[in-house]
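S.,

Sequence below, as promised.
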Amino acid sequence: SLFSAALSLLLPAASAEVYFKEQFNDDGWTDRWTISSDWKSKSELGEWEHTAGEWHGDADDKGIKTSQDARFYGLSAPMTKAFNSGDKKDLVIQYSVKHEQKIDCGGAYIKLLPGGDKFESTKFGGDSPYGVMFGPDICGTSNKRTHVIFHYDKKDDNLLIKKNVSCETDQLSHLYTLVLRPDNTFEVFVDNKSVRSGKLDDEFDFLPEKEIKDPDQSKPSDWVEAKMMDDPEDVKPEGYDDIPAEIPDPEAEKPDDWDDEDDGEWEPPMVDNPEYQGPWSPKQIPNPDYKGAWHHPMIPNPEYEYDEEMYAVCKDGCTHVGFEIWQVKSGTVFDDIIVTDSLEEAQEFAKETFFKKKDSEKDMFDAKEKKKREEEEAEMADEIDEDDFDEDMMGDEF
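The prediction came back faster than expected:
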């Protein structure tokens, strides 16, 4: 009715649930986050720096930055509210990453963690159970990927996406977003552009194969897969094996200064015999018994069963977020983390944060790079002038 239609316009839409949000803009971030002090020794753990970085959109809009080379970094925080897959809601994880150091080898992924009141923050590390591991990881020129890894209770395993998702490698901030839906689909965005989406059972090894080779079938012993065969009527010509591969060069002549007594009996050099055709083999003809390649018959896999709950990575509730990474070269800034059940909410948060400062950050970076180039060029010019001066002085001396 018109009344109910009008009423629906007045009623607010179902509001998004925000399970965690962190912008690192106050010194109190250290009270919200716990260092994994019992995961590695103090000498192995790197210090986090509270900074907007060397180039930024706003000096007061800070993140946390890895500050020491060749160190582990472990850090976790409790979520405002646990995310439970049983609620059958979308799971959206989003955060920004800026590699100021021209990263050569190091992780920058985030993890969604179970544990609740039993979660041991100081012990959180690489072996701690997790529901989701998501984000960029770079090492060398060949390993550059955005990890998308989901824990699967039925296999008690963490399942990696089968086909790599690329990641950004420049020195600017980039926004990474993961959406996991209760219809068993997922999507990955970088800078709010979709870079991969699909079904969980297509892109991950959640389920066994739908079909398997029939164990009761095997290739018949008389199955002929050879397409060609020796011609039984082709006979090796008489004397074929007597033809040598090489013969003395008929055009060679003994040198005039050759002395048989001193040099020994002269023998002409050997050359390839034009009549030699290699080892004899019979002609090949089509095999009348050829049946083609044998293909093992397939049957439905009795162990295959679709799982409606592949998406349920937080069956017992995910209660914390964390970073546990290793970096050879430090200088990565993390910022603007949100865990919610609404992609629209995450995108709105990105507008207020990442996209608000993105362009001015690039302007500052470009200006710094330009100044750096000008200084390097000036330095090179000074070195050339000094070399020319030295050469002139040397010339005057002589």
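Helices lie at 2-10, 29-32, 200-203, 260-263, 343-352, 354-397.

Coffee later?
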